[in-house]
Amino acid sequence: MNNDIPVQTLGGQGEVMAHAVDACVHCGFCLPACPTYALLGDEMDSPRGRIVLMKEVLEGGLPLLDAAPHLDRCLGCQACVTACPSGVPYGELITAFRGWSEPQRQRSPLDRAKRAAILKVLPAPKVFSVAARLGQFVKPLAPALPAALRSPLDLLPESVPAMQPSAPFTPARGVRRGRVAFLVGCAQQALTPNFNAATLRVLSRNGIEVVIPDGQGCCGAAALHTGARDEALKLVRANLNAFNPDDFDAILSNAAGCGAGLKEYPMVLHGEPDEARAKAFAAKVMDISEYLGGLLAGGTLEPTLPASRPLKVAYHDACHLAHAQGVRAQPRDLLRAIPGVTVLEVPEGDLCCGSAGTYNLEQPELATQLGARKARNILSTTPDLIASGNIGCHTQIQSHVRRQGDRAPVMHTVEILDLAYRGEL
Amino acid sequence: MSTEKLALTTNSGARKPASAGGAPSALAAELTRALGPRKVLSNLSERLNYRYDAIQFGATPLAVVLPESTGDVVTAVRAARAAGVPIVGRGAASGLSGGAAPTEPGLVISFTRMTRLTIHPERREAQAQAGVITLAVTDAARPHGLIYPPDPASFRTSTIGGNLAENAGGPMCFKYGVTGDYVRALSFVDADGEEHHVTRDAFDLAGLLIGSEGTLGLITEATLRLIPPAPHTRTLMAHFPEVGACAEAVSAAIAAGAVPSKLEFMDRACTNAVEDYLNLGLPRDAEAVLLVDTDGDDLDTVQDELQLVADACERAGGTVRRAATDAEGAALWRARRSVSPALGRIRPQRMNEDIVVPRSALPDVVREIRALGDASPFRLVQFGHIGDGNLHPNILFDPRHEDTHAVHDLAHDIALVALRHGGVLSGEHGIGSMKRDFMTDAVDPATLKALWNVKRALDPHLALNPGKILPAEGVEG
Question: Which residues of B are less than 8 Å from A4 in CB distance?
Fold first, then answer.
């Protein structure tokens, strides 16, 4: 798309944005992939429309405030990136744009406080855990509360487990075949500690020793994707210091959103002194299913015990795994490798579940519509189990599946593998 | 002609006409009163997004209506008439002729919310409102053992209304025909806001509306013919060291009696652009790639027919590869559908042509166009529905660094190649504004006058999608 974006005055992030706008040929192939277009049916709430709006704002032809409602509704799911033949890096565009525009936004004090609170609590597992457990007590009152408070409570599981900090080092069982670093994540430490425990057990079982480097923290994706660029940069730099890519075969994450965030570091630091370090770091980042899938493809994954009965597993593609990282086949292959497991494809599988980082807190109405639609689609396959690779999807899907009266367990792919190894599936 | 040259470069936000900005128009206020705020867009941030299609940016509309019923369309048309502003219909805006991009500020009616679709299996018909997504018709018909064959590359995005307005084609159309061949009846709203229901009987007013790009009326609903899909399909890919050889293979295969269901061609640059997107292992070094489907009721016949094509390709110097599975065939067709937008990887803007030439002339035409490209400073690529002689030469350029007037001249030269070989300007994309200039080369003055008489009869105020298809009266070739 032809544009007059003033790259020279916008710097490195300007280059990122102008490159994306250049690549768009406004063909509209992205429209049917976009969740908000599916719900709202208007061009402003489509990827193509948003690219035009961002271009107009950057060129000075449209006030930011006018474009903001439509840009704020973008989930950042990147389904449009998968659908785009001309290779528009839409995820980079919307992230850079939010970073550029957020300091210019005039938000109400309440809105500012809410955003600040989210960005404070989310990356701090201990605080999150306390908040989540407090939330348990308030949860029964949810129907009487205003929507802004209700939406996070709705997503809380029925019981919040106690925190189980992971050991900084997990040795390989048997012959050591590899050494990886692991990013432990934030919300999942508080809400679903078994994700990490299962990850460590499965890796160890496969002869992979796991280091959880000290000094690591939140990946920064939540801050970055809500435009808090300075906040994000601090987190990015902390992780670059904590993980030395030369020490490990891979740097693993088991949360699709975090893994995608880690892989974005070179874009975040484009044109800055740390860009080369970020590239070396990102080159080692893999999702847990991508790494284990590699072992499976190479014939070195330890076989699991069979499931105790034939199991139909509906696999949900997390957007930040399928669209942002292109990881689709590996988790399915891993599940299929368990004797007795059949993998079911979910109708409209490319459509976001509405969780999308902080989206279900910021746009609860659309998030709820998408969550309900996702649950309906998943349940239409009548699964015994529901698998996904992301904490956000996990809570959203669990919440909506329960609301629709179904009790099918919702699990991380690696939890299912872990159970199979233990003969408990 | 100068306005059209300008149209190639009007997609900069910095050069918007003054009438586009600022306060909502009186028209928007009136529409909001009549239809309610949910169906009317009046903010600049909203209207800016209804000024383009997949090839061109036009004028920012004064107001946009998202009708949910034919009644809403009638109300909107009457309000625009009362305000004396032009009316442009719009589907998904995935068109490639500028058909949905307004040439002047007015009312845009976007049909994306009119999506009612009913399948009547016993009549083998679909009743579809204008905003129904093309592929949705087949998706809904398939459980009844039926499909809707027209398959423009954008069929996941495009709407039936848009397809009807441009008389869209697609790979399936070589054997099965274009959009217009599947229309049994239409409903449309005329320039005065009257609703009409027409069939294919004399006068075939439905036929007149099809492909008229919203210049004669606004199609609101269609009755579409459905057919049972062929039970067997086989896919083949052949690649060639030279574009002309590929065209010779096509002529030879058809002369030998093959009637493939799809017969598509892409040149080297196209192949590389889609390969960058999909990583399918397409032959990046080949000068031309041919994709072929044969289909039918009897597997032996389908395979024999594919063999005829394979033999013709090999005799013309091609290398043949058959798709081993349905999934492999589907992946190849996804690659073909992605060609046009994937060209954005090469240059940010393009001038897209849609010529149709007699099949016997194909080898000469693709070679002449290749030579025009080689002699020009631009990247010129070719792909298209070569089975029915429908080619899409695309000039890829960057208007910031390259001369858009020279682009236009090259596009004109390409159009003249087609006309010299007995061809026409548009096979499936429509004329829109992109190829309107070339109409005086393609149509004689007396016929143009007749077309203008038709236009005036149905749209006496010249309010419907002005500046499309017909060159201004009195403009000579």
Answer: 12-14
With an 8 Å Cβ cutoff, are A26 and B52 in contact? yes
* Structural domain harbouring A379: 302-421
User: What number of H helices and E strands is found in chain B?
Assistant: 16, 18
Does domain B232-420 fall under CATH 3.40.462.40? My reply is yes
Q: How far are the Cα atoms of A155, A158, A160, A209, B291 from residue A137, in angstroms, in the given order?
A: 14, 11, 11, 39, 63
Residues of A within 8 A of B38 (CB-CB) are: none
B161-187: per-residue pLDDT in tens?
999 999 998 889 889 999 999 999 999
Determine the pLDDT at residue B19: 42
Within a domain: residue A366?
yes
Q: What is the mean pLDDT of residues B43-56?
A: 94
Query: In terms of domains, do A84 and A151 share one?
Result: no
Residue A151 pLDDT > 80, yes or no?
Answer: no
One-letter amino acid for residue B428 of the chain: E
pLDDT band at residue A180 using 50, 70 and 90 as cut-offs:
very high
User: Has domain B2-110 been given CATH number 2.40.50.1020?
Assistant: no
Where b means 16+ CB within 10 Å and e means fewer, A149-177 reads: bbbbbbbbbeebeeeeebeeebebeeeee
Please determine, for residue A83, whether its predicted confidence score (pLDDT) is greater than 90: yes
- CB-CB neighbors (< 8 A) of A44 in chain B: 41, 45-46, 49
B343 touches chain A (CB under 8 A): yes
Domain extents in chain B: 2-110, 117-225, 232-420
Do A177 and A255 fall into the same domain? yes
Subunit contact B48:A52, Cβ cutoff 8 A: yes
Fold of B117-225: 3.30.465
